[in-house]
Amino acid sequence: MFKKIMLPLLMIAGFFILGIRAPRNAPTALAYYAVDTASNDTYLAQVNGISSYTTGLFILFNPVTDNTGACTLNINGMGAKSLKTPAGGDPGDDWIDASEITPLCYDGTNFVIMKMDSNPA
User: Fold this and answer.
1) Pairwise CA distance, residues 100 & 24, whole Å
2) Are 29 and 49 in contact (CB under 8 A)?
3) Which of 76, 73, 74 is nearest to 84 (CA)?
4) What pTM does this model have?
5) What is residue 8's predicted lDDT score, i.e. its pLDDT?
6) DSSP code of 14?
7) Residue 91: strand, helix, or coil
8) What is the DSSP pairing of strand 58-62 with strand 32-35?
9) Maximum Cα–Cα distance across the chain
10) How far apart are CA 22 and CA 6, in angstroms?
11) How many domains are contained in the chain?
């Protein structure tokens, strides 16, 4: 009984006591918060901790304006990347709403908008 219960507990405690570290390539955050500093569909943001676009990068985006069709996001001056719907198309007008946080995930080419249209027709 002791071995069945205490051994896993000791292993967990050892993990914390010994200070075992995450792998070197582990992300530093699960999601980054980005506040738009532009006033049109070419969104801009400065985000600490991001030095390159990597597949799986997750952004909680706070836009200043609603989009009016195709739009891009440029983080830390690394180059504008298109924002696409989950189906892969350009978002329709007002898909991105300035009153909402918009979750985005970088797929290696574009940022995919991870929510439904804010203002469906």
Assistant:
1) 34
2) yes
3) 73
4) 0.74
5) 43
6) H
7) coil
8) parallel
9) 64
10) 24
11) 1
R_g of the chain computed on alpha carbons:
20
Spans of the chain below 70 pLDDT: 1-29, 121
Please give the span between the terminal C-alpha atoms of the chain, in angstroms, as a whole number. 62
Q: DSSP letter string over 23-88? A: PTT--S-S-EEEE---SSSEEEE--TT--S--TT-EEEEE-SS---SSEEEEETTS-EEEEE-TTS
Q: Is residue 91 part of a domain?
A: yes
Q: Is residue 87 situated within a structural domain?
A: yes
Q: How is residue 119 annotated by DSSP?
A: S
Q: Determine the pLDDT at residue 67.
A: 94
- CA–chain centroid gap for 27, Å, is 12
Q: Taking Cα atoms as reference points, which of 87, 102, 96, 101 lies closest to residue 119?
A: 96
Domain of residue 40: give its range. 25-113
- What amino acid is encoded at 10 in this protein? L
Q: Is residue 39 part of a domain?
A: yes
Report the 10 Å Cβ neighbour count for 34. 23
> Is residue 37 in some structural domain?
yes
Distance in angstroms (rounded) separating the CA atoms of residues 56 and 54: 6
